[in-house]
Backbone:
């Protein structure tokens, strides 16, 4: 998984929209990950590197992610999304059995 992929996952889980564009020299507007990186940067979830790059195509490792992650991911958001997904999945299964 790359840095861009991980940030995209977190962005989708949050359900938020980016308010501006990413301020990294290697994140072009219009790229599939640009909004997610802007959102993560604005919310203090990630930092770039000292040279102004984000390096979206770099593979994630624990040692490479921890220094760039400046804030705890909002666990309440993740739990809420997981619960919503779980409830929707249970309802679909129930409806298949009883014919909703």
Residues:
């Amino acid at each position: 998984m790359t840095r861009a992929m991980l940030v995209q996952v977190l962005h989708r889980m949050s359900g938020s929209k980016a308010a501006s564009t990413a301020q990294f020299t290697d994140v072009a507007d219009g790229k599939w990950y640009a909004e997610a990186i802007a959102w993560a940067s604005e919310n203090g979830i990630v930092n770039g590197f000292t040279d102004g790059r984000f390096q979206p195509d770099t593979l994630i490792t624990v040692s490479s992610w921890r220094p760039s992650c400046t804030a705890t991911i909002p666990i309440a958001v993740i739990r809420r999304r997981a619960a919503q997904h779980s409830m929707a999945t249970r309802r679909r299964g129930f409806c298949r059995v009883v014919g909703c």
Notes: The mean pLDDT is 76. The first helix runs from residue 3 to 14.
